[in-house]
């Protein structure tokens, strides 16, 4: 018996098959690009997701696919897919890095229970009403990315609390806030009924089963957002565990059984199986490193080698805020780049500064968590953007925390597969602690006063650049 997890990410789709003991036995992925038809836009035709799913599944062994008895879903959070009655997309999906709705955030005056970003479903739907009224008129469902994919496989129209609470349209208990929705002029009928992440929400349709080489009629779990799925797949305890995930963006979350208090610059969302987590969400991690790598014409191997072969510069800094930033600054207008370059700086010095700048952006998010009384000295590590040992050491040094790598290369996809196993009754929630993957210490922080001085300079430079951009027309 096998269970399939599908993780619909920002830049790629990953699939993982786990066995009856929760051990990953097969995985595959397919990458895709986002479209930016106008400055600040980030969208993708949903057919690109479907093609990636078919391609990734085709790379899995046919026998493993035939043994799959349930499917679970993990998906990039925020963003929105506008769909008709049957769940067919009416336009390209709008995604979380999108900033087109920045000018419309006045509908969410401070204080809010969570930071509101322009790439969340609420602001994007408000933008659609104003700028694409014909599309808005045709909308029946405003779906989160993973919910659209589940419907495309034959599943039911549904949303789960872990995704709903991150739309800027939900009440503190994660139910839809219909009073807010109506005040914004959004039709309440657009929003799918909520179902638990581990609940069965339909079954795999015959056409989708043929396309993916799977068995028709198997249960489809509702699924959850990618961050709570990664926490589930990484085996985090329900209370007090901390996780760092690095990919296109980066998240630092701390689990809690009770609802955490409101903290400016931090998010408090629902876990996949109940409970809560506090999260610092930094959106310029892999995306900033990929941009720097491209500008400097590196392949990834040489980028790592030259970055960690170069001595750090006391004057050169890289602000990675290429698409604004969420935690802790709540600054969609933030921008970045290299500052303090000199004639003696090399390409290696520039890429080294880029890695340090991303590490410092993560540190700023972690410091916001610590400032709220969370004594975080140890982090579990997950995500494809933190594999290189030299990069892990820089992260440990910059964050001032022990890093324990989770023995689970596809944590979010594994978490989704576990939800599938729960949905079909193979596991109970009480079984999951015994299935947690092993975590191995991979880096311990070293005292480095020069690194701390560069971090202080990084914060000072951000403040100066922020003031400049705030004054720009």
TrEMBL record:
Keywords: Kinase, Transferase. Its EC number is 2.7.1.17. It is an enzyme of class 2 (transferase). InterPro entries: ATPase_NBD, Carb_kinase_FGGY, FGGY_C, FGGY_Carb_Kinase, FGGY_N. One of its GO terms (molecular function) is D-xylulokinase activity. Belongs to the FGGY kinase family. This is Xylulokinase. It comes from Paraburkholderia denitrificans.
């Amino acid at each position: 018996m096998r269970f399939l997890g599908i993780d619909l990410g920002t830049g790629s789709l990953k699939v993982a098959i786990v066995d009856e003991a929760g051990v990953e036995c097969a995985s595959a992925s397919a990458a895709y690009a986002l479209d930016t038809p106008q400055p600040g836009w980030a969208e993708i035709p949903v057919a690109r997701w479907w093609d990636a799913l078919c391609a990734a599944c085709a790379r899995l062994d046919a026998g493993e696919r035939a043994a799959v008895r349930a499917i679970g879903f993990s998906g990039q959070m925020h963003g929105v897919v506008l769909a008709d009655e049957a769940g067919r997309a009416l336009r390209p999906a709008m995604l979380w890095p999108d900033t087109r709705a920045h000018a419309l955030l006045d509908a969410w005056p401070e204080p809010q229970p969570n930071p509101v970003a322009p790439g969340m479903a609420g602001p994007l739907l408000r933008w659609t009403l104003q700028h694409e009224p014909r599309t808005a008129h045709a909308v029946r469902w405003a779906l989160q990315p993973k919910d659209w994919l589940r419907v495309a496989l034959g599943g039911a129209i549904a949303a789960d609390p872990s995704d709903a609470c991150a739309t800027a349209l939900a009440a503190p208990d994660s139910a839809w806030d219909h009073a807010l929705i109506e005040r914004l002029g959004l039709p309440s009928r657009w929003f799918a009924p909520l179902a638990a992440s581990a609940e069965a929400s339909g079954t795999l349709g015959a056409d989708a089963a043929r396309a993916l080489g799977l068995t028709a009629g198997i249960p489809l779990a509702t699924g959850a957002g990618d961050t709570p799925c990664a926490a589930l797949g990484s085996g985090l305890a329900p209370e007090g565990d901390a996780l760092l995930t690095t990919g296109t963006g980066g998240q630092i979350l701390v689990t809690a059984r009770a609802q955490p208090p409101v903290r400016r610059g931090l998010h408090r969302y629902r876990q996949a199986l109940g409970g809560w987590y506090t999260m610092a969400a930094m959106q310029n991690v892999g995306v900033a490193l990929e941009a720097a790598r491209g500008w400097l014409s590196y392949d990834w191997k040489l980028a790592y080698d030259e970055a960690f072969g170069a001595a750090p510069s006391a004057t050169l800094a890289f602000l990675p805020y290429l698409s604004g930033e969420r935690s802790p600054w709540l600054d969609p207008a933030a921008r970045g780049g290299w500052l303090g370059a000199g004639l003696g700086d090399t390409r290696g010095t520039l890429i080294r500064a880029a890695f340090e700048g991303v590490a410092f952006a993560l540190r700023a998010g972690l410091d916001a968590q610590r400032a709220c009384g969370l004594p975080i000295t140890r982090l579990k590590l997950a995500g494809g953007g933190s594999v290189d040992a030299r990069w892990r050491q820089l992260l440990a040094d910059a964050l001032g925390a022990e890093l324990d790598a989770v023995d689970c290369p596809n944590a979010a996809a594994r978490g989704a597969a576990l939800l599938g196993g729960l949905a079909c009754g193979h596991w109970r929630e009480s079984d999951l602690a015994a299935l947690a993957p092993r975590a191995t210490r991979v880096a311990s922080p070293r005292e480095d006063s020069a690194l701390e001085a560069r971090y202080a300079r990084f914060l000072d430079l951000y403040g100066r650049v922020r003031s400049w951009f705030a004054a720009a027309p």
